[in-house]
Amino acid sequence: KTVKEAMEEAVGAAMRASIPMNKGYVESEGIVAVVDEERCVGCGLCAKVCAYSAIRMKEVAEGKRKAEVIKALCKGCGTCAAECPRDAINIVHFSDQQILAQVEAALADKPNEKIIAFCCHWCAMGAVDVAGVSRFEYPPNIRIIRVMCSGRVDTNFVERAFELGAAGVLVAGCEFPTCHYITGNYRCKERMEKLKSKLAQKGYDPNRLWTVWLSAADGPKFVSTVKSMVEKLGLAR
């Protein structure tokens, strides 16, 4: 991580910390992480990637640890769930099963003509809304699946889309350094870059996986990205 990135993250964290300090209390989120202790091996990766220190490792037996979510601190971004190597964490209302069900439903018919777009709730969906309100036209190939943060996009979601025959996958998150969840977009970017190598090893063209980072006002950028993707993937009519 560069000094510039570290400073940007620190500024974002300070701005968010000022909110409860001014209010004088903390509001608990309804969308929170949940740990499956039977699957958890206590590696501690989830605690390491959490931008809110909302996960701690508790000792359940001598020399044995399990992850525990502090719900009052958890913001439900889902980065921990996407990073967990054992799939031991899920997010209330945005579980792996729920998201994968949406992927499968979207690709049930003519998957080779469709692009699955995982869009973060805050900026990417804001850009989609701007495009709609502004009546910008873009190809109908796109199928949008909302996630709270781009950090929630698990590699399993992308791989499943390609297994089902999707023409492409687009992951859209907040522009840097303004992620609503501080570091979610950074984690996502790193994860997707690593995934491209894995896709190539599995025989999929890594150029079918795209990422775009948007502000909530970036309707035109979202539209141009979709149009470019459709053209590059040979889906234009």
Explain the overall architecture.
The protein has two domains: 89 residues, 2-Layer Sandwich (Alpha-Beta Plaits); 137 residues, Rossmann fold, CATH 3.40.50. It is 39% helix and 19% strand. It is built from eight helices and eight strands. The termini are far apart.
Strand fraction: 15-25%
Overall shape = globular
* Global structural class: alpha/beta
Mean pLDDT metric:
94
Q: Helical percent range?
A: 25-40%
CATH class annotation of the largest domain: Alpha Beta
Number of beta-strand segments: 8
| Topology pattern, helix = H, strand = E | HEHEEHEHEHEHEHEH
Walk across the major sheet and give the strand order: 6-5-7-8
**Cα distance, first to last residue?**
42 Å
Question: Architecture of the largest domain, CATH level 2?
Answer: 3-Layer(aba) Sandwich
Key attributes of the depicted protein:
four-stranded parallel sheet; Alpha-Beta Plaits; two-stranded antiparallel ribbon; Rossmann fold; alpha/beta; 237 residues; globular
Give the helices and strands, then pairings.
Layout: H1 3-23, E1 33-35, H2 45-49, E2 55-61, E3 64-69, H3 79-83, E4 89-91, H4 96-106, E5 115-120, H5 124-133, E6 142-147, H6 155-163, E7 168-174, H7 184-201, E8 209-214, H8 219-232
Parallel strand pairs: 5-6, 5-7, 7-8
Antiparallel strand pairs: 1-4, 2-3
